[in-house]
Amino acid sequence: MISTETLKEYLTFMMKKYPCKIHNKLQKGDLVTKSWGLNYLIDNMNICDELLDSETEKRKIVPLKKIYEKMNPEKLFAYLFSQRRKIIPYSEIFNQNLGECVEISIAVQLLAQTKAESYQILGNLELFKDLILEDHAYNIIFTKDNKAFLIDAANPLWNEKKEFHCNYTAPIIDINFKEGEIIVPKEWKQGRTYLI
């Protein structure tokens, strides 16, 4: 089992080594890399506040399901290609409800960083061990009692009827430092391997 301090030290080390891949505190004016040379400009630190309600505020939680339901990945690529810009304000994408993993993880980070220590990771997701490896964005959030969770708001868990079951909020139990793999309990694996 990895200690919280060791995990934080590792994330800090990786953030210095790969400053475009790991963000601890997004600030106005920061650029977040999408791919194909495209970047999102963080232009409004409060853009995601519309997703908060009295319950999420009281419990100091990030409304992961609301973020997931707001973002529409189908229209995102057509919009991005039509823009022919290398830098797009994040609020422009968010206000049009466009997004997949990077856009969703930015929303999670903007809300989480006001409540807890958190990181946005632009890493990889491997599905079913060596079958599919793709760029993927997700978050790591530390709770007040110093427990670390891998949050993949873009890929919730579904039940047998293909209905939303729960958010993917897996406890982090270790890291394979050589491979950069985040280790979660077996019941949270779901054929997924998250890499930094």
Written description of the protein model:
Strand 9 and strand 10 (181-183) form a beta hairpin. The mean pLDDT is 91. 29% of the residues lie in helices and 31% in strands. The strands form two sheets. Strands 1, 5, 6, 7, 8, 9, 10 and 11 form an eight-stranded antiparallel sheet that branches. A three-stranded mixed sheet has the order 2-3-4. The longest helix is centred in the first third of the chain and has 14 residues, at 4-17. The chain has helices spanning 4-17, 54-59, 64-70, 76-83, 90-95, 101-112, 186-189, and strands spanning 22-23, 31-33, 39-41, 87-89, 118-127, 132-142, 148-158, 164-171, 174-176, 181-183, 192-195. The protein has one domain.
Extended strand count: 11
Using only CA atoms, what is the Rg? 16 Å
Shape: globular
* Overall average pLDDT: 91
Structural class: alpha+beta
Q: Estimate percent helicity.
A: 25-40%
Distance between the termini: 18 Å
- Individual helix count: 7
Estimate what percentage of residues fall within beta strands: 25-35%
SSE run: HEEEHHHEHHEEEEEEHE
Summarize the biggest pleated sheet.
8 strands, antiparallel
Low-pLDDT ranges? none
Provide the domain count.
Answer: 1
